[in-house]
Each structure stands twice: as structure tokens, then as C-alpha cells.
Amino acid sequence: MALETSELARYARHLCLTEIGVEGQERLKASRVLVVGAGGLGCPAALYLAAAGVGTIGIVDSDRVELSNLQRQVLYRETDIGLNKAEVAATRLGELNAKIQVRAYCEALQVSNAKELIQGHDLVLDATDNFATRYLINDACFFLKRPSVFASVTRFEGRLSLFCSPEGPCYRCLFPQPPQEIVLNCAEEGILGAVAGVMGTLQALAALRTIIGLGQSLHQTLQIFDFLTMQSRNLTIAPNPDCPLCGTNPTIKTLESVIPYCANSPEISADKLRALLERENESQLIDVREIAEYRQGSIPGAISVPLSRILSGEAPLPTEKTLVVFCLSGQRSQKAAQTLVERGFKSVFSLSKGLSSWPGKLVGYVP
Fold it and tell me: Which H/E stretch holds residue 162?
């Protein structure tokens, strides 16, 4: 794709770099990048991709802007609260660079749509915050032979890597199974906003380097950044011969077979939960947070069963009722719901987004 006169001026600082030049900028213009997740990582990543002149950018996110997002998700303003993130992000990027195409996909990435969304792009940025979607991105990119740039953040730490298909290693080589211990997300553990900004920018940089062919590839390397000490280290990711996806005897052979490996447990929205609770004796609310959290306030009628007791099987739970488990943001309750389903409970739901989505009044614990 030849550059227009206005683009020669816009990207002048790129063009004077001998490692990029006109040829490299034309590669960026011809490239198509899918950003999965328009949150703390996806916002800065998408901003720099758009500013750099990536010709087509897809934004995948079904969430809506919330006030707590504004601390780190730099594409949004207070007036955007309640609007779909993908649509707002697409508008902002279009205002930044009218020469590129930005497409909003206001849906969650799932097995049913992953192939369609990813195959129209050359490279994928994994800017998500849960293991299920990370595995799905990894597996779909493997089958479609697309490179993916992975990043994660928590508190003051960030991680970054590049997975190139069909060669290993892949994300499953790094994490063969979701960690058995609970990995809290930003809503529960907190994060310094600028940490997400730095890591999202590094994701964009890794994508640009991959498209243009700059420097040494991040493939087979996990970069870990500690922003409290301002130190970083690199770990080598070795291909796992027993990997169920890219190993010598894979058990995941089609994208459809990914479902049992990376599916989240069924979720229920706050509105549907309110309707369910109106039908007496059909459901049981279970607060899986710690006792101290439960005592600070919970949904009326909920019983306290900390996640550790569910994982250990110590807590007797009714089998004849629909169980709705919840925590602060939905991370711990997903783990609880998945555990209960695996144990044979037939009707279990996790409250989507947890208490942060509950519009009703919380009731404090009375001893």
C-alpha cells in the first residue's frame, strides 16, 4: 500500500528511521491487528497502533465503561460511562487517525466466533484478564497460524511475550493448566494505572516490531517487569513436548475441542438474578469471599461459604436449588462455579462482574 502525501508528513519520524523507512510504514498500513480487550492494556496498545498507522484495527469487548475504569483505561471519559467499550474505543481511534479503519466488535470472544474474528487479521493482541479467554486466543491463533502478543498486569507487575504459530512454545507450554491458587484480577487486587499503560504500550511495540521485522523477536521469551523496583528479567519459555496443543501428541486437534479446556462457567447478570430471586425457594445465593469481606456487606439472603471451603469440599450445599455464587468482581466465583459443576451440581451460576454490578443495597453482617 503506497503512502499518501499527508501520510508522508504524518509518519515522518518513522520514515527517517532506516530500520523502518517507507517500506516499513507501508507494511504497517497494510497490516490488520485484532485487540481483544479494550481495558487497561488494550486502550494504550490500540492508541499507539493507531498513531503508528496500522491500517486496520479490530477491537473486541462486550463490556461497558465504568467509573473505576477511568483510572487506567485512557481512551474513555466520564461522559462515556455506560457505553460499550469497543464502540467508544473505535470512535476515539478514528478521531486520532482518520486514515485507518477501526472496527468495533461489541461481543465477547468465544469458541463460536473466535475463528471468524481472528482469521481476518494478521496479528492478535491478548489484552484480556482471565485464563479462559487467554487459552482461547492462544488455541485459535495456533490453528489459524497467527502470532499473538500476550501481556498481563497485576498490582505493580507486568508480563509480556510473543507466541508464534505453528511453532511452539505456546501459552499452554507456559501455563499447562490454570493455576490452582486463586489469581485475583485488578478489581480485587488493585493495580497502579500507569503499570497497565506501560505494558499496553509494550504490547503495541511488540506488535509493531513483529509487523515490520525489527530487532530480536520476543518468541520463546517471557519478560517480567517489577515496577516497584524498576527491574526486569527475561525467562526462556521452552516448548513442552507434552503440551495438549503444540506437543508431540496433541489432544486439542480442532478449535471446537477447545471448549472443555477453556470455557468459563455459566454466568448470570444482575438483572436476571433479581428476577430469579423473586421466585422464592428456587435458588441459593452464596458469597464466596472471605468472612471479613462478607461481614462488610453482602446481598440479602446470601450465605457465606468462602472459596477455600468450596475447593476443599467441606461445605454442604443444597443440590435441589439453583446455586448462584458471587464475589467482588466475578473471578473467585467463576472458580467456585466451575468446581461445583465438576462435582455434579446441575444448576450453578456465577454472578457476572460480581458485587460491582449489583444495583441493590448490601446488608451488613449482624452477629
Answer: strand 157-163
- Give whole-number Cα distances, 193 to 39, 84, 154, 187, 220, in Å: 11, 21, 10, 12, 28
DSSP bridge partners of 348: 323
Residues of the chain with pLDDT > 70, as a percent, come to: 93
Contact 267, 330 (CB under 8 A): yes
* For residue 268, pLDDT beyond 90: no
Cα angle 179, 58, 22 (rounded to 5 degrees) comes to: 115
Residue type, 165: S
C-alpha cell at 334: 467463576
Q: Of 173, 243, 262, 327, which is the active-site residue?
A: 327
Classify the phi-psi angles of 75: left when phi > 0, otherwise alpha if psi is within -120 to 50, otherwise beta: alpha
79 SS3 class: helix
141 in catalytic set: no
Q: Is 224 helix (H, G, I), strand (E, B) or coil?
A: strand
User: How confident is the model over 155-183, as pLDDT tens digits?
Assistant: 899 999 999 877 779 999 988 876 544 44
Distance of alpha carbon 116 from alpha carbon 365, whole angstroms:
48
pTM, two decimals, is 0.77
Q: Answer whether 232's CB lies under 8 Å from 224's CB.
A: yes
Considering only residues 280 and 209, tell me which one the structure prediction assigns the higher pLDDT: 209
246 flagged as catalytic: no
- Specify the DSSP class assigned to residue 51: H
Cα-Cα-Cα-Cα torsion 97, 114, 203, 192, nearest 10 degrees, comes to 100
Q: What is the pLDDT of residues 36-45, one digit of tens each?
A: 999 999 999 9
| Angle of CA points 43, 44, 47, to nearest 5° | 90
H-helix or E-strand spanning residue 322: strand 322-326
Catalytic residue among 43, 141, 186, 243: 186
pLDDT tens column, 298-352: 998 899 999 989 888 888 888 778 889 999 888 788 888 888 877 778 788 889 8
Distance CA 41, CA 158 (A): 10
| Nine-digit cell string for 45 | 496498545
- Report the Cα 34 to chain-centroid distance in Å: 13
